[in-house]
Amino acid sequence: MSYETLIVETPADAAGVTLIRLNRPDALNALNSRLLEELSQALDAAEADDAVRCLVLTGSERAFAAGADIKEMSDKTYAEMFAADFFTKGARRIEQFRKPIIAAVAGYALGGGCELAMLCDFIIAADTAKFGQPEINLGVMPGIGGTQRLTRFVGKSKAMEMILTGRMMDAAEAERAGLVSRVVAADKLIEEALAAARKIAGQSPLAVMMNKELVEAAYETTLSTGVAMERRLFHSLFAFEDQKEGMAAFVEKRKPHFKGR
Ligand code: CAA
User: Fold this and answer.
1) Would you say the CB of residue 97 lies under 6 angstroms from ligand 1?
2) What start and end residues bound the annotated signal peptide (predicted)?
3) pTM for the model
């Protein structure tokens, strides 16, 4: 499928990995309705394709995404925003996506762009990355989870300062604060993200999905409920051939070959 606002690639040296590039260079990848609709379509296609085991979502060197498209949004009424579930519908598709998505962030990740990165499973940042929720400067607020996720990731004090002042955080601060899993040189960003994705794509896709669900549950439930869920899913993995294969491969000192069953 071809898209107007995305470039979707299957890198030759990364079996099982799909690389999605946001591609609105003239608008610093601002997230308009078209882009969010196409991203939903690309996720549908990736979810339906058993060969796809992990996604990498990235932007350009200058911007991952500079937020929701302000020009598209500025004249909307409350009724239009509400009736169309404007902007927020696309975010829900990402929340429901069951395969892992890595955000590879260089340059600006602002407003909806920062929120989009946080909707992914983890963020690898280039040393050029800048994160922020500057919606306050526009008289509004984050709309796809920024007030909640940023607070959970970096704590109340830093999140409150960023959201109320619009201050940006550079890559080093984002790593110290726990927003990103690690920072790499900008010219190594895609290589590093693809290497992580390739590693995930080689694991049992069933075990990967269950692990993802449980880490997400840690944000939604109490410790005892999360641990109880983990216990159930841990035992359930023994119903899959992939568990037998993974453990047999260890004992036989060979690489496992997971089939997703
Ligand atoms: N929406 C629409 N267009 C945008 C945009 C956005 N969020 N961000 C940048 N652009 C456009 C600019 O208008 C400009 O287009 P023109 O050349 O046609 O004028 C082009 O991208 C390049 O941008 P700049 O000239 O501004 O580039 P810069 O290097 O001087 O500044 C920047 C970069 C600091 C990121 C600046 O563009 C900026 O502040 N952008 C807006 C950031 C923002 O406020 N994001 C939050 C949006 S609201 C939101 O996201 C809501 C939500 O959570 C639900």
Assistant:
1) no
2) none
3) 0.97
